Amino acid sequence: MPELDLAALDPDSLMMFHDEEGDGVALAVFLRDGQFCRARRTWHPLPRSSTILDGISLRCVHPDFVALYDQLQDHGQMPSVAQTQEFEIDVKPGAAPTQAPIVRRRPFGAAGPPEAAVRGMLLGLALGDGVAATGGAVPPHGVLRAGAASQLGLATADGLLRTEVSRAAIVAENPTIVAMREVVQSYRRWAVRRGEMPPHVSDETGWTAGLELLRERRGSSPTTVRALLRQEPLDSDGYHALLRSTPIAAWNREQGSLVRAMVGVTHSIPKVGQFAQLWTVLLRRSLAASSLEEAATVATNEVGARTRVAHHLGMVRERAGVAPCDHAVSEKFAMRRSALSALTGGAYVAFSYPDADTIEEALAFAARATHGNAVAAVAGALLGALHGVHALPPGPALRLELGWAADTLARDLAAVGRAGAMGDLQRFRPLEAARLRRAYTAIGDQG
After folding, report:
1. pLDDT tens digits, residue range 48-66?
2. Full residue range of the structural domain in which residue 211 is found
3. Residue 100 falls within a domain, yes or no?
4. Name one Pfam family in it (predicted).
5. 409 and 346, same structural domain?
6. Does residue 120 share a domain with residue 79?
7. Which of 172, 189, 354, 411 has a CA that sits 20 to 30 A from residue 88's CA?
């Protein structure tokens, strides 16, 4: 694919392709002998038969539709309405690869993830962690302090936002590679702020750098810190790798490869990455589902109903249906400080208390588990994603130490998840675009 000089690109040579739901999925050009061509300055729907296109091939301008969309908007070169068409391509066995390559769709489509659900997910994560710190007996007054896992979850969200806001990196590289770089750097910032890594390994940019509460050592994450210091993963199946992957569920790009790669930075056991992937799939489906059963069914089919990973979720659903709200059952699922125990223990609580009006009761139940912080954090994030921020118990939620930070990150993550979000902001709300770029400075945009 030749490099394109966008500053000199004629928008009349472009055509926007749409899927069956009307979402834009690709920008492409017609080439004849390597040259752009057009028909009367507008394009028409591509016929199923390609025989009349002898000598003309269809090429994808860029594999990431949204990144190119943003850049074209910045240059004021978007195709006109007459050039945006639906099309079908007749793919014949053994035919030359002249059709446009498959472009990965955004998980939440062009509209992005629902804001209330994303806010509920991140605040639910921190709320469960904070409630567990009290042993389930939440005092009527005072601040609820979440631990290291919630802090790491916010660091993940910060890294994803820096990925999306970057002016250049995501256009030039694979989004997963950019996200890995930004998220790992956010983990380093977290460790430096807590005094667990030397300052020279990280930078201090963005609005989170000024938050004193993120410098507080609330709990510990020794595997994550040691792995970052050694720059190699450790033989651990701890649950922090699972909990810190929570925000990826709201990332409106391909998520599976990022989850596995991000977990693999610190945890070398493959199953940890598999459990984290199931977790993010279940969360992603919960963000847009009407019930937990619906989300679990779709998530199970997505990861493979016959896989061992899905089998664990199936057992949780079965036991919660037969013996819900049973502490003995909860302890069996959450007997270790592992990613699997956190996932199954927290999911058991969520399936036992699936309704919006029982979230407070669910968190109190989860907090009494042996490893209550992990179990309650999973249950809180899952129920928050399903029912949204307004279903969380307002009293405890308003007293969260990390509440404002989590809510701000969640709002911004949902905002930049829309297709062409940064381009739209730059064009119609330039002050907001400037705020985001100051707040989430990417590595490649510094200096």
Report:
1. 333 333 344 444 445 455 5
2. 115-435
3. no
4. ADP_ribosyl_GH
5. yes
6. no
7. 172
Bridge partners for 36 per DSSP: 31
Which of 40-49, 65-74, 205-214, 326-335 ranks highest by mean pLDDT? 326-335
> Does pLDDT of 190 surpass 80?
yes
| Residues 373 and 381 sit within 8 Å (Cβ to Cβ) | no
Q: What is the DSSP letter of 237?
A: -
Cβ atoms 281, 189 nearer than 8 A:
no
Which of 86, 107, 135 is the endpoint of a domain? 86
Q: What is the DSSP string of 53-87?
A: GTTEEEEES-S-HHHHHHHHHHTT-PPPGGGEEE-
The model's pLDDT over 65-108, given as tens digits with 9 standing for 90+, comes to 555 556 555 655 555 433 333 333 333 444 443 333 333 457 88
Q: What is the CA radius of gyration of the chain?
A: 23
**What pLDDT score was predicted for residue 447?**
52
CATH number at residue 240: 1.10.4080.10
Q: How far apart are CA 89 and CA 321, in angstroms?
A: 47
Residue 98 belongs to some domain of the structure:
no
Tally the residues of the chain: 447
Burial 196-206 (b: 16+ CB within 10 A, else e): bbeeeebeebb
Q: Tens digits of per-residue pLDDT, 14-41?
A: 555 554 444 554 555 544 444 443 333 3
Question: DSSP labels for 257-316?
Answer: HHHHHHHHTTB--HHHHHHHHHHHHHHHHHHT-SSHHHHHHHHHHHH-TTSHHHHHHHHH
As a whole-number percent, the residues of the chain with pLDDT over 90 amount to 45
> Would you give the distance in Å from CA 406 to the centre of its chain?
14
| Residues 349 and 411 occupy one common structural domain | yes
Residues 81 and 157 in one domain: no
What phi and psi, each to the nearest 5 degrees, are found at residue 140? -70, -20
Residue 193 and residue 155 in contact, taking contact as beta carbons nearer than 8 Å:
no
